[in-house]
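Example record for the data management plan.
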Amino acid sequence: MAGPAFLVLLFSAIIVIGVCIYKFTSKEIKPLVTLQALSHYLAFCILHVLVGYAEAKDFKDRPKLMRAFYVFHVIYWIILAVSQTARCTKEDFYPDAFVLNNCFSFGIFVMVYMLHSREYMIVWGKDEQVAKKLFTA
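Corresponding structural encoding:
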């Protein structure tokens, strides 16, 4: 899990740098919507790393869950591409890309809530209590 966790932390640092750079720009809406989409994607990537690399031997639903996650990655990349079309006018105050990103992120939140209520479909063995404690923390 160390490699993917490192990549997620690096991605997080890139987003923070992007936000700092944005603060000193002309405040166009397109980079702001893109940064928001990237931050939502980062939260999903963290979930992917946690669930995808959980050290549980009896995790029969992991392949099915990972297939769904790969589809969600593709959808996020589509949302990132759509965010490049963001425009804000007096008539259309909220760009469509902004609304699309928020709706999809809310859907991911609902999925995570359902997974959490089912304990992520992970069955932890007696010898895996340390891994379970780390996962739930």
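Summary line stored alongside the record: DSSP finds five helices and no strands in the chain.
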